[in-house]
Amino acid sequence: MNNIKLTYFGHVKRHNTLEKLCMEGMVEGKRGRGHPKRRWSEDVAEWLKTPATRAGATAQDRRLFRSLVWKATSSPDPP
């Protein structure tokens, strides 16, 4: 499942579309009380073990991003 999410992240980051604006956009106003919501970019950064800004920049090079996704999803995490 992470493989699908990561490849979609790369697809969205490579194109200037409404999806990219929604993913990167910051909403005006205050957040509600309680635990902060987890963002998709935070999950991607955790899965790829790289900062979110670097993951977005790497997505521009499709071959490099695909190899990064393959490495992140092909090897199981150690217990």
UniProtKB/TrEMBL annotation:
Domain of life: Eukaryota
Protein name stated in the entry: Uncharacterized protein
Protein's organism: Elysia marginata
